[in-house]
Every structure is written in structure tokens, then in C-alpha cells.
Amino acid sequence: MVQIPDAVRVEPSLLLRIARPEDAKELYSLVEKNRVYLREWLPWLDDAESIEDEIDFIKDQQKRASLKKGCLFLIELENDIVGTVSLNSIDLGNLTGWIGYWLDKDHSGRGIMTKSVAAIVDVLLVSCGFNRIVIEVGENNPSSLAIPKRMGFRNEGTSLERLWMYDRWVNSTQFAITASEWEKK
Ligand SMILES: CC(C)(COP(=O)(O)OP(=O)(O)OC[C@H]1O[C@@H](n2cnc3c(N)ncnc32)[C@H](O)[C@@H]1OP(=O)(O)O)[C@@H](O)C(=O)NCCC(=O)NCCS
After folding, report:
1. Per the domain annotation, does 45 fall within a domain?
2. pLDDT in tens, 144-181
3. Domain total for the chain?
4. How far apart, in whole angstroms, are the C-alpha atoms of residue 117 and residue 133?
5. Does 106 reside within a domain?
């Protein structure tokens, strides 16, 4: 049975840990600070309009984690939340997970997300029994496209009109890696 850890240490000052309702205030202020920036690439900003929304979201993620349907990790740099990496979806029958992520704009350009995603992919494929990890990225999102490419994911092609972004369809590129491919890296 797949067992996902509560925390993953990436570096001495960089930790991924499962979100708790007590994190809602800090996480919400980070969303608020980055709202305009994130809205360009992520579809859920209109569902996060208060600390209460954030509490509900975290509780929902906890419930999904208990059902092995997904989970939300906070990225903590020196004890401050700077972004999230989540398992947006899990296909337990086929041991596949779909990963999503976002980072505070002021912390971008330093490799924090590449290292964080690589750490969670490693845990999922090497220790948790997953066989395949997928990252779907909206077209024309070069910073996000660079992350799976840097980690050696394969480009599996374009899905047309895959993401509804407020008022328009966006195509996505699907990247994936299997456990045996990851092991050879
Ligand atoms: C996608 C997103 C997380 C990428 O952030 P990022 O800061 O570019 O990614 P990283 O933290 O891995 O940093 C990579 C940058 O740091 C540099 N870097 C420095 N040290 C590095 C290291 N050890 N490892 C990797 N990159 C390193 C890289 O060269 C790269 O710089 P560049 O942008 O000038 O090429 C961020 O743009 C974001 O949150 N966007 C909005 C939300 C979003 O699009 N989410 C994804 C939806 S599919």
C-alpha cells in the first residue's frame, strides 16, 4: 500500500511538509501577495478569497490524503512558507501521481522548486511504490516547462484545450517519468 510521508527534507533549510489548518493564515497571505502573478498560470485563485477558504482547502487536502487521493505539501524555507508542491491526483491502481506546484515570485530563480519537485518525485518513485509521475504544464509557461525538463521527464505530447483558465482554454504539455527511468538517472 502506498504510504506518503508527512515531511521530506530537501536541504538543511528546505523542507516539504504536509499542510495543516494552522498554516492557513500564512499560506493565504502568500497567495494574496502573489495573486495577480499566479492568476496567469493557475485556475483556482477565485476559490481562495479568505483565510476560511484556505482552511477549507487544507482540510479537503487532508481528507484526500487520508483517502490516498492526493496531498498538499508546503515548501518551507528557513521555516517560512514560500510555495507548495501537491499531488493533485493519484491513480492507485496504476501507481501514478500527478504533481503541481507554485512558488512565491520573490523566491523564484534560485532552484527551490526544481529541488523540491525532484525530492518529492524521488520519495514517491523510490520509497512509496509509485511507478509513474506526471506533470502537466500549460503551454507558454516557460518557467514551469523548465522544471520537468531539468529533471529528465519525457515530453509525452500536447493535450488540446486541457485547462480551463477563467475565460479561455489552454493547451498543456504532458511530461512523465517512470520509476525505472528515474532509477537510471
Ligand atoms: C513554475 C515556477 C514554480 C518556477 O519557478 P522557478 O523559480 O523558475 O523554478 P526554480 O525554483 O526551480 O528555479 C529555477 C531557476 O533557478 C536557477 N537555479 C539556480 N540554482 C539552481 C539549482 N540548483 N537547480 C535548478 N535551478 C537553479 C535556474 O537556472 C532557473 O533560473 P532561470 O529561470 O533564470 O532559468 C514559478 O514560475 C511559479 O510558481 N509560477 C506560477 C505558478 C505556475 O506556473 N505553476 C505551475 C503550473 S503548471
Report:
1. yes
2. 999 999 999 999 999 999 999 999 999 999 999 999 99
3. 1
4. 11
5. yes
In a domain, 64, yes or no: yes
Judge if the beta carbon of residue 105 lies within 6 A of ligand 1: no
pTM of the model: 0.97
> Which atom of ligand 1 is found nearest the CA of 136?
48
- The range of the structural domain enclosing residue 111 comes to 7-132
Q: Is 18 a domain residue?
A: yes
Write down the residue that cell numbers 531539468 correspond to.
Answer: 150
Instruction: Give the distance (Å) from ligand 1 centre to CA of residue 152.
Output: 15
Distance 67 CA to ligand 1 centre (A): 31
Q: What is the pLDDT of residues 20-77, one digit of tens each?
A: 999 999 999 999 999 999 999 999 999 999 999 999 999 999 999 999 999 999 999 9
In short, whether 77's Cβ falls inside 6 Å of ligand 1 is no
What is the secondary structure of 36-56 as a DSSP string? HHHHTT-S-GGG--SHHHHHH
Q: Say which CATH number the domain at 85 has.
A: 3.40.630.30
